[in-house]
Amino acid sequence: MTEILAPVGSIKAFYAAINAGCDAIYLAGEAYGARKAIDKFSVSEIKDIIKIAHKYNVKVYVTVNTLIFDDEIEELLKYTDELYLFGVDAFLIQDLGLLNIFSKRYKDLELHISTQANVKTIEEVKFYESIPNVRRIVLARETDFNTIKMIKESTSLEIEVFVHGAICMCYSGNCLFSSLLFSRSGNRGECAQPCRLSYSLVEDDKVISENKYLLSPKELNTINYVEKLIEIGIDSLKIEGRIKSPEYVYYTTKLYKEKVLNPSKQIKDIEIENLKRLYNRDFTKGYIFNEDANNLVNTYRPNHQGISIGKVISSTNKTITLSLNKELSRLDGLRVIMDNEEDFGITVDKIYKDNKEVDKANTGTIVIESHKIPKGIKSGANVVVTYSKKLSDEISSNFDKINKKAKALNLKFIAKIGEYPVLEDISSSIKITGDMITSKAENRPISKEIITNQLSRLEDTEYYLKNVLFDIDNDIFLPLGLINNMRRNLLGELSNRNVTHRSIHTNYSFDNKNIEITNEVKIKVEKSIQLDVSYNMGFKSFIVSNLDIYNYAKNKYNDIKLELALPRIINRYEDTLNVDSILVNEVGSINKYNLNTSVDCYLNVTNIYSANLLFNRNVNKIALSLEMNENRILSFIERYINKFGSKPNIELIIYDRSDLMITKYCAIRAAKNYKEKCNLCKNHKFYLKDRLGELMPIIRTDICGNRILNPKTTCLFKYMNNIKSSGITNYRINFTTESEEETKEVLSSYIKKEPLNGTNYTYGRYLK
After folding, report:
1. Pairing relationship of beta strands 695-700 and 713-715 according to DSSP bridges
2. How many domains would you assign to the chain?
3. Over 60: is that where the pLDDT of 619 sits?
């Protein structure tokens, strides 16, 4: 049966998930999870959760899905070793280095590839298929249903998809927005969520959409479509929400579980309304079910929308008179939204209907009283309920303890006069022998009903007594305490049967393929003029962004080295590529093509174990992640040599206007409300403008999505002497939007070994 995977960010949410019927939960420890804003569990708390969850046949998956630096690995392994030995069911991982280590170290553990790995094609899936212990792929949320179906039919790995909750606008694992602008890495669980801020869209020099939430996606909700995923055999349906309330966890988990148990179940209007009351940024069926791009974002507001319940008629400093159209209860939470889009939240202290105080009201004119009502509320302001006291009360009993019995006991009780009694669990064949011989009753014999009553005392356990078979003599005597002890001993033996017996494999080794070390400066270009300028200034080694420029360069210059940069996001692979060398940002191309292959910075290599895995998959050069700082960059070569005994062929990008985001969605289409592809970006320059006035260029991707570029360019020319002393011998200058003159200026500065002039430059994460 399809698994329902519930989010757990607190103990109460854990109880809620179990009581709602989840099959598995996912959570994070105190580090290494992609949601550092949530309540994080200590190792002892995770152990307690594993112990309890396993009693109820619920699996526990721990997220270790951040990028890891070399200096963190030793401490991380202490953490994962302890959880592995205690019986965690799987680790969710993004980092290729951890995959390299875990697949060797933990032979008896499932590894799940996180959505942060951005897997969306069968070629990427095949890459992971070749790695031991990888059992499941969590597909990228941009993957559509037909592709999901094809992947499921083409792999032996389990497939998991997100079906409900918050989604990211950027392809997961590819967002550097928070990292480069706020020094808080989304790939390290520190995301500042700049996508939830407002931006203006600038076309050429004109603002065409002002202060809209152009990057703020709605909440995914597939409850009315999920039976399609069940039909094609998707292994796990994942609910997002580790920072959301226990009420949210309980209700969403319960609703999706009911749908799995009965796919033909018709979802009621009140159930959708309750989902909205618990949390929504408005709902979308997402890319998975081909949502129109214009319906992916809520440009109006980035936060909980609640559900509209009426309009303001009038107000005082203590009361608001409302025209009510839906049920409202005392202690509900409300948000009042004015025409100028300002809002404020209040708690309903009292409700008056027809001048009488009531606990709730449904429709009509009412007066609500609250202790914090500001001035300036205008008639007609919209009122939404963002917290439902009634709904919370209805399900709050599910948060403090586990209310369900998950395991049935079918027992057999044997008692013969002159022999020791035996209690047997039929399913496991565990037998418990009593410590007192059965005797004949002198007065009142013990009955089957009394024995059954003692055996059914299972209140604080995960078990319920389903049936007892008896093989007993007539008129026997046994003390009740004896029967109770036999029951307790049986439960203890059953618990011991569930203990995981594992050992850590520490004598593993890593393959080590010798790589040719190159020594060159490469220029990456996205315009032919950039290539021409670079060639005329003496550069002969190029990476080009498309086949048109590749063919242009090959026909014009016969003394240059050419490498084709494949698109960062690939949905369909060409059967053959008529090129010698490729630069890739995803593992599918590594699996697909037997070409001279380099890995770009967006594949997020941040440790030597990631590099080792890739070099042993026919990669010959790796550009380090843009998330690396100076100390980690300068020590990378030395660390690699010390561990693997050979030098890695590493490249560092020293000039770049980096992609902050790459999206399947187009902000231009959304702002202009175009239903079809408009191609305006081919003839106009578009920018996102933030609240500080910074302009972020928008570039079209091959599939009509957006690349949103850093408003400032990263330039490390000032630190070249230090970088060269580290042993790194390959350097890259990336051009994107630069004009002919700007290209000349950058290359002149590099040749002269001088920093660039002006202030529109940054050192990226190099000094952070």
Report:
1. unpaired
2. 4
3. yes
